[in-house]
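To the team - zinc ion complex, inputs and output below.
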Amino acid sequence: MLSVIRVVVSHRCEELRQMIFEVFGFKLAVDGGVLVLQNETDVQKAKSMIEQALSDRKIDDYVVAENTEDPAELAILRRGDMEQIGLYACSFCMMVFSNDVERNLHQRVHYFGFG
Ligand SMILES: [Zn+2]
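Output:
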């Protein structure tokens, strides 16, 4: 059972860190450069709250990615930086893939109208 969720913000962007504080308020602690959500166990809920906050603020050059190796970690990444660290996001729904072949295969469902 997870008791905390870590949120890694790339580039120590103050606007994003401020946004996370506004979204999660008192639940948030800072550990080094990492924001820690206490008493929060639902990664999907945390992810959608952050995505909603990004969209409310019309911040569309960042995406929220799950760490496939650590289910308790979310990373807020600048789109342009993702490919450098080996992540490829679908440009339609922002699902994240570990290589561009899988991403391109996935993107076909959008082209053909199944997504
Ligand atoms: Zn997609």
